[in-house]
Amino acid sequence: MVRLTGDGGSWIRGLSAIALLSGALASSACGGDDDDDVADDVADDVGDDVGDDVADDDGSDDGAAMCDDDNGSITLPDGFCASVFADGLGAARHLTVTPSGVVLVAVADSDAGAGGVVALLDTDADGIADQTESFGDVGGNGIAWQDDALFFAEDDQVLRYDLPDGELLPVGEPEVVVSGLPSDGDHINKTIVLDDGGNMLMNIGSATNACQEANREPLSPGIDPCPELDIRAGVWSFATDGVDQAPEDGEQIAEGLRNTVALALDPATDVLWGVQNGRDQLYDNWPDVYAPEDEIALPGEAMFSIDTPGPYGWPYCYYDPFMATSVLAPEYGGDGVIVDECADVEVPDYVFPAHWAPLGMMFYTGDQFPERYLSGAFVAFHGSRFEPDASGDLPGYNVSFLPFDGDAPADGDYEVFADDFAGDERPLPDAAEHRPVGLAQGPDGALYISDDYGGRIWRVIYVGP
pTM of the predicted model, to two decimals? Predict the structure, then answer.
């Protein structure tokens, strides 16, 4: 069942907001989107400080001493606070935390310099990393740790490092798990997720916006069949213990997902979930079919349980949250209403507002947060480029929470959990102070959030009412 995000009309902030930026940053989402880790004792200390002793019986918030007075410039729900765990890391993308509390951050290449991996550790349990190491000389987006091995996804390959838990630097040189991955076009970032069955699940985003003959050009028709679908715009599985695999050694497990950078396994069910970066430029490329406000409002950012091969719709279809159905894309003869073959594509399990640019996703399994957060999904939204002068409730630039009931989103709406990343300067996204990307849970149940604009890592904890 599809669950929409409340009054769709609230997504449209008026024609004065429709001043499109002429290009997208290399790591910006929606339209180029991106759209586009002493240790055991330290973890025990942190767990004690944040867990049983966070709030005294009288309700006083001792744990708040681990937080910044202004929560590192972000806003959080009552009872939560944040510390700036690390800052100035560069284009910090996804992150993962080992059982001993070592935080490992994937840093992308940027104008500030080459990326790689940054390892952080808080040895005195004050909510701030005091040990830092870095390794690798090429940036990337995806990162995952399992059984003393660190997997790091550059744009065209995935490396595996020997990194025992508790260590900040790897042993020896990395092995190449898979190379030759598509790394040109609009969506080059790779997200990786490790399951318990020896599989590395990977998003490979599309090269184009809508598989047109001329990418992002007005009135350019779509290529039919779209040749990208054999090698991109989906999710692939590779062996975690493999060496020097090629793309053709992988198994495509989902087809027709334009760019699903926000990808996570639900540990309660072992089902893979993703939130897709939806297509752009409906009005810009098809002004005779769409109105200016459609540029902001369509399509919704669709969330799927990726438990079938699909197809999930792209490029032939997009999801219209107002019609509550997938409709035929204009590149393939659609007029904004025709459903046609799109009646047979996978139906989203939930739909977030358009162009919010979901880049990170995580299911909460800890007990540090209140019980209502258990098993729910956090999603990091990089923020839209289509509302440069937006004010008030911004189009993304937040971390939202979606409660789950069993194996599906609960009835009701998402909640904005962490907000005010962007700051007050405009235009967006260029003038944004921070843009959230990655999410990870520490062994003590703390939530870590990364930012690829300011290079900041926040550590969020609950300290009581």
Answer: 0.90
